[in-house]
Design brief:
By secondary structure, the protein is α+β, with helices and mostly antiparallel strands. Helices cover 63% and strands 12% of the residues. The protein has a six-stranded antiparallel beta sheet. It has a six-stranded mixed beta sheet with strand order 8-13-14-3-15-16, with helices on both faces. The relative contact order is 0.14.
């Protein structure tokens, strides 16, 4: 048995003043009770919860009629509330809940609230939610009291809507209706937009002619602005690079200056060291010169001594001349000549170098020794032979003096040699000192020259840097005058490609030309420009809006066509099956005869639902003739017409049939539809009231068969229907005038209920 609708809760709804719960645990639930007890109010509550908005369809005149109005024994309430609980373990509803609860509230001030699983939603969303489950407040899901022939009384279009709801096509129909509404609005808005465009366009063209040269000025100003940006940015970048190069040179010069200062300090140290050693060497040289003078003086003394010896020799010569022996005179004269030569050599040696002087002394001494030795030997022999003792003594004395003189000369020679060596060393040291001193002086001078050159370059770089700073300030000032902010330059400076000088000159020339052209154009009429801009902006907006609306019209038309085609295809396919079942159930109900549903082609104008033509289409066929654009007619769904033939009776209009016959036809059509597409549940309010006992039993048997797939909530007075039910609810009026509900099993309580 189908078990989709679990229970309903009522509180303050119509005659149910207090909280009332009816559970529906079975496939067929019958609600019984005397007339006026409030049975149909339960049906109204279900219809209201499924989204019904019209109070008249809820058997009231206004929304406030749904709220318990009060009785003599019980005051009225301020709000009506009802809830439906659905079993959703088979995911009949497209939500991830095993139970779905729909709650609706209404207050006396007309405020409504709709809740889906305790979350508030809009009524439109609630209707769409039920449509996806093939449920709705209208149609054949709920057949109210006195509506057993509802399908018979309905218009062809209403019949079609009822069938579509049973077939689950209402969801598509709602989407199509929404698309139609949006299409209508889009076309209206498109017409308005196009009308405004036609109104604006001539004025816009006139404004464009007037503002053409100013627009040109705007383009020129933009170009000028961009060129100035590029020019000044490149200038700034060039200045920055030059400044960077100058800073680098200054940095290098500072390093060079430090090196030069270090070298100058080192040279000064050398100079100081040299100058500190110079007095000692001068003193040593002075001492050597003094010693040399002393030696020379001593040499003069020796020369005098030699003169004395020479005089003695002359005396000896005179003594020898008195001797009788003639041969004695020659050696002495030779010796005298030798002494003279020695004197002369000594005098000459003053101007000679120490080495030459030493050699001369040495040779003279050797010569003197040789001569004296020879002459002494000869003289002594001759003196001895001649027995001249006195002369011999003189000669020996002379020899001793000469030897002493020779020794002194040798000492002098040695001292001169030592002094000359010292003098030579001092002269070499002095020469080295002068070379080092000169080099140090040169290094100091070179360092001074480089320092002077660095100071000169540094002054030049400093002047250049100051000049660049002035240029930079001027450039920035010009940028500010051009309306640029230095922050923008700083942000864009890194993105500027460095230009060469010729390119910058060309840009500068272009800037001057643009400034001249702008001056010739003159000032802009700002009011007119603003009007032109606003008009063009409005035109562009309307143009875009018009294009969007045109696309929306195309898209919505396509959506409507697609949905219409889907509805038509599924509807026609199901209608064949419904017709077969309808004919079968009709034969069962009436014991023969035939019945079928026909589709009418209905056309209406764009904004009118007036039926212009109706053409019968046998067996659900729809005429797919082309649209008539000239008449602005749109083919919509075809309506449904009922055609029946009763057995043993001539059938005219359906209006001529009895109430029972009309109820049977309506029930047969209902069962035909649910046999093709079983709904989750049906609510039937006394639809069996006009049936005789035989047809009532047939009705009860049919709902039993259909309860395997569809749950039935039936309000009835019919015994056969009650016997078919698994659960019975009895509704009565309490003493306080409110409805009360009692449930029972039919097998145990049918007598008391009846």
């Amino acid at each position: 048995m189908a078990h989709f609708l679990k229970k309903i809760e009522l509180n303050g709804f119509k005659s149910f003043a207090g909280k009332t719960i009816l559970e529906f645990p079975a496939g067929i639930v019958a609600i019984v009770g005397p007339n006026g007890s409030g049975k149909s109010n339960i049906v109204d509550a279900i219809r209201w919860l499924l989204g019904e908005r019209d109070a008249k369809n809820l058997r009231g005149s206004k929304t406030e009629d749904l709220i318990f109005a009060g009785t003599q024994k019980r005051p009225r309430v301020g709000m009506a509330q009802a809830s439906l609980f659905f079993e959703n373990s088979n995911s009949f509803f497209p939500v991830d809940f095993e139970e779905v609860t729909v709650t609706r509230e209404v207050k006396r001030n007309g405020e409504n609230k709709y809740l889906l699983n305790k979350s508030e939603i809009l009524l439109r969303d609630l209707i769409d939610f039920f449509a996806k489950a093939r449920l709705g407040s209208r149609g054949l899901i709920i057949i109210g009291q006195g509506e057993s022939d509802l399908f018979i009384k309905a218009t062809p279009l209403e019949r079609r809507e009822m069938i579509e709801e049973i077939l689950g096509l209402r969801e598509y129909q709602l989407k199509r209706t929404d698309a139609s509404r949006r299409l209508k609005n889009s076309k209206i808005n498109l017409d308005k937009a196009q009308a405004l465009i036609e109104e604006i366009l001539p004025h816009l063209r006139s404004l464009k002619r007037q503002t053409g040269r100013w627009e040109k000025r705007e383009a020129m100003e933009l170009e000028l602005k961009n060129l100035e940006n590029t020019f000044f940015e490149n200038k700034l970048k060039s200045i920055a690079e030059k400044q960077k190069a100058i800073d680098l040179v200054i940095k290098e010069n500072m390093k060079s200056r430090a090196i030069l200062d270090e070298k100058a300090t080192e040279a000064q140290k050398k100079q100081f060291a040299i100058e500190s050693t110079q007095p000692k060497e001068r003193k040593d040289l002075s001492e050597i010169k003094e010693q040399t003078t002393q030696i020379l003086e001593k040499r003069n003394l020796l020369q005098k001594e030699l003169g004395r010896i020479e005089a003695q020799i002359e005396i000896l010569q005179e003594s020898f001349s008195k001797k009788p022996v003639a041969e004695k005179k020659y050696p002495v004269e030779k010796l005298l000549d030798l002494v003279k030569n020695i004197r002369k050599e000594l005098q000459d040696s003053v101007s000679k170098t120490p080495e030459e002087f030493r050699n001369t002394i040495s040779s003279l001494i050797k010569e003197i020794d040789k001569t004296l030795n020879s002459e002494n030997d000869n003289g002594l022999e001759k003196l001895e032979s001649q027995e001249d003792v006195k002369l011999k003594s003189e000669i020996e004395n002379l020899n001793l003096q000469f030897k002493k003189l020779t020794d002194e000369l040798q000492n002098i020679e040695q001292n001169l040699k030592t002094l000359r060596e010292k003098e030579l060393l001092l002269e070499k040291s002095q020469e080295s000192f002068y070379v080092s001193f000169k080099n140090a002086i040169n290094e100091v001078q070179l360092a001074k020259n480089k320092i002077e050159e660095w100071e000169k370059n540094n002054r030049e770089y400093t002047l250049e840097k100051e000049r660049l700073d002035l240029i930079k300030e001027e450039v920035i000032r010009q940028i500010e005058q051009a309306g640029r902010h230095i922050g923008e330059f700083s942000a864009d400076l890194n993105n500027v490609n460095q230009m060469n000088e010729s390119e910058l000159q060309e840009i500068e020339r272009r800037i001057f030309r643009l400034r001249g052209d702008l001056a010739s154009i003159g000032d802009v009429d700002q009011a007119l420009m603003k009007e032109a801009q606003e008009t063009e902006s409005r035109y562009e907006h309307l143009k875009v809006e018009s294009e969007d609306l045109e696309k929306a019209v195309v898209d919505l038309t396509q959506i409507m066509n697609d949905l219409g085609e889907k509805i038509k295809t599924e509807f026609n396919a199901s209608l064949y099956k419904i017709n077969d079942a309808f004919n079968e159930f009709f034969g069962v109900m009436f014991g023969g005869g035939s019945a079928k549903l026909k589709v009418l082609k209905i056309e209406n104008k764009k904004n009118d639902e007036e039926i212009n033509d109706a053409e019968n289409v046998e067996n659900g066929e729809v005429d797919e003739s082309s649209e008539d654009d000239d008449l602005e007619k749109t083919e919509i769904e075809g309506g449904i017409e009922i055609e029946v033939k009763l057995p043993r009776k001539k059938t005219g209009s359906l209006d001529m049939l009895s109430g029972g016959e009309r109820s049977l036809i309506g029930i047969a059509a209902l069962f035909a539809m649910i046999s093709v597409s079983p709904p989750p549940f049906l609510v039937l309010d006394e639809v069996d009231a006009a049936l005789d006992e035989r047809n009532a039993r047939r009705f009860a048997e049919m709902i039993k068969n259909f309860s395997k797939h569809t749950q039935f909530i039936v309000v009835t007075h019919n015994r056969a229907t009650m016997e078919a039910a698994e659960i019975l609810y009895g509704v009565t009026l309490d003493e306080d005038g409110t409805s009360k509900v009692v449930s029972m099993k039919f097998e145990t309580a049918k007598e008391s209920v009846v």
